[in-house]
Amino acid sequence: MVSSIPAARRGELWHDYVCFDPETQVRNSREFAQRMAARRSIRRFAHEPVPLEVIENAIRAAGTAPSGANKQPWFFAVVADPGLRAKIRIAAEQQEHEFYEHRASDEWLNDLKPMGTNASKPHLEDASYLIVVFAEQYGIDPETGEKRTNYYVHESVGIAVGMLVTSLHLSGLGTLTHTPCPMRFLNTLLHVPRRFRPFVLIATGIPERPVMLPNLTKKSLAEISKIY
Ligand SMILES: Cc1cc2nc3c(=O)[nH]c(=O)nc-3n(C[C@H](O)[C@H](O)[C@H](O)COP(=O)(O)O)c2cc1C
């Protein structure tokens, strides 16, 4: 009887699954880790055009992310328009001045020293695109207009942003994750309903050469993992 089959086992045959032998699994994972080790946050961008399709494909990839009960609680606003980017920069730099001069603790400012950051955010205008990622706090039933719960919103959107940044990096673009705080001005400037909370702002484009980066190290495998 069909009804006795657990819901999780009902569904369609999955034709896209690709099975690799163990050697290929190791090679693929090693190559991927090496390519990801070359990702760094980029704070200076060249004025070089980037096809919009690269951004759309990165969002397509992010949109495949797992999410609580498949609610897909994300929205990606792509800002290419220079006038709008200038407005975003002005509003973001206002928040940044507040942050650097009043809100940030001494510990936080000290932790930021290696990054060499300050309240000036030229990347908001220089990068080819800004992608503002919004987290949908709750859904709206299209038929009844009632509120619908979204589950594990932060976790789901965090995974999607990881996939977005990964796709942009593997396409040869630099990215900067930027979080002006508070970010609600982005709802106003982009006319996005307030049930969508700004999550991160990703500036992306071709890095300015030569690429200058803060000298940071990443924790080792032994520091961040343990096999039980
Ligand atoms: C949630 C989040 C917020 C961040 N906010 C900022 C920011 O506001 N300004 C900035 O310059 N970098 C920001 N960064 C970038 C971090 O400083 C950077 O990822 C970190 O120093 C590690 O460097 P890497 O990305 O080159 O590995 C942010 C990163 C994350 C994940």
Output the radius of gyration: 20 Å
DSSP summary: helix tally: 8
**Lateral strand order in the biggest sheet:** 1-2-6-5
Q: State the separation between the terminal residues, measured CA to CA.
A: 41 Å
- List unreliable stretches of 5+ residues: none
In what range is the share of β-strand residues?
Answer: 15-25%
DSSP strand count: 6
What structural class do the secondary elements suggest? alpha+beta
From the structure above, extract its key features.
228 residues; alpha+beta; four-stranded antiparallel β-sheet; two-stranded antiparallel ribbon; binds flavin mononucleotide
In a few lines, what is going on in this structure?
Helix content is 39%, strand content 15%.
Structure description:
With 228 residues, this protein is α+β, with helices and mostly antiparallel strands. The chain is built from eight helices and six strands. It has helices at 22-37, 52-62, 82-103, 106-112, 123-126, 153-170, 185-190, 221-224; strands spanning 74-79, 129-136, 138-140, 147-149, 174-178, 196-205. Strands 1-2-6-5 form a four-stranded antiparallel beta sheet. The chain has a two-stranded antiparallel sheet with strand order 3-4. A hairpin with a 6-residue loop joins strand 3 and strand 4. Helix 2 packs antiparallel against helix 6. The radius of gyration is 20 Å and the shape is globular. The N and C termini lie far apart (41 Å). The model has no long low-confidence stretch (mean pLDDT 94). The structure holds flavin mononucleotide.
What is the strand and helix layout of this fold?
Elements: H1 22-37, H2 52-62, E1 74-79, H3 82-103, H4 106-112, H5 123-126, E2 129-136, E3 138-140, E4 147-149, H6 153-170, E5 174-178, H7 185-190, E6 196-205, H8 221-224
Antiparallel strand pairs: 1-2, 2-6, 3-4, 5-6
Helix pairs in contact: 2-6
The structure holds flavin mononucleotide.
